[in-house]
Amino acid sequence: MVTTSRGSSSSVDRAVDIVAALAEGLEPGQRLGTKGAIQAECGVSKGTFNEALRLLQLRGIITLRPGPGGGLFAAAPTPMAKLGSSLLALDADSSTVADAMQVRDSLEPLIAAEAVDHGSLTDIRELWLLIDDMRAAVAAGDPQEFLAANWCLHRRIAEITPNQLLRQVYLNIMAIMDDHTVDVLPGPEVPLDDYIDERLQLHIDIVAAIEARDHARTAELMRAHNVH
């Protein structure tokens, strides 16, 4: 499930970067060192280091082993799925989420068209509240929270349709994506902050088109959305 980082201060980020650099190039199962030794190398408090370890484990960079001979060990590579100019770190085989994303993308134009036809004033008001959540995540520079708010918006749009089968299939697909995504990482093409800014504006435009009951504009925006 998508998670947000608690206490994501610069010291946590620095510790994550140091440990990730130590693990880079190691074979899965190779030992980085004891927990105490690596914490000392990072130069951070125990609480900060534990938060860094939590993030590193979520991202599949390290594993922890207790007892004699224990410590920090390089983990097997985390499965990834591409989402636009970002990467989703997964806890399942990447093909599972990639397949779910492909089906979701094929359903979204129909989901959006249904929202244009059937969206009530209450529906539209709640969509704008979810846009506000996305804005707040952008302002906080929190890509995990942005993705969580984004997917809440998509689920709420899907809930508008009176077609129960369409709604349930779509929501089940979103559940697969949500359950197996543990982090959002920068992609190689566009800085993550820029990508999130672009996606926020696109979703603002989608909600505005749904509110205006503009089928042509909604369809155009959904095509742009599914190009990522």
Give the strand order of the largest sheet, numbering strands 1, 2, ... along the chain.
1-3-2
Shape: elongated
How many domain regions? 2
Output mean pLDDT. 82
Low-confidence region ranges:
1-8, 80-91
Q: What is the CA-atom radius of gyration, in angstroms?
A: 20 Å
Instruction: Please count the beta strands (DSSP E, at least 2 residues each).
Output: 6
Which characteristics define this entry?
228 residues, mainly alpha, Arc Repressor Mutant, subunit A, Four Helix Bundle (Hemerythrin (Met), subunit A), 2 domains, 3-stranded antiparallel sheet, 9 helices, elongated, disordered N terminus
In short, what is this structure?
Pfam families: FCD. This is FadR family transcriptional regulator. With 228 residues, the protein is mainly alpha-helical.
How would you summarize the topology of this molecule?
Elements: H1 10-23, E1 31-33, H2 35-42, H3 46-58, E2 62-65, E3 71-74, E4 80-83, E5 86-90, H4 94-118, H5 121-140, H6 143-158, H7 164-179, E6 181-186, H8 192-211, H9 215-227
Antiparallel strand pairs: 1-3, 2-3, 4-5, 5-6
Helix pairs in contact: 1-2, 1-3, 4-7, 4-9, 5-6, 5-8, 6-7, 8-9
How would you portray this structure in words?
It is built from 9 helices and 6 strands. It is mostly helical. The chain folds into 2 domains: 11-74, Arc Repressor Mutant, subunit A (Orthogonal Bundle); 81-226, GntR ligand-binding domain-like (Four Helix Bundle (Hemerythrin (Met), subunit A), Up-down Bundle). A 3-stranded antiparallel beta sheet has the order 1-3-2. Strand 4 (80-83) and strand 5 form a beta hairpin. Helix 5 packs antiparallel against helix 8 (192-211) and helix 6 (143-158) runs antiparallel to helix 7 (164-179). It is elongated, with a radius of gyration of 20 Å. The model is unreliable at 1-8 and 80-91 (pLDDT under 50).
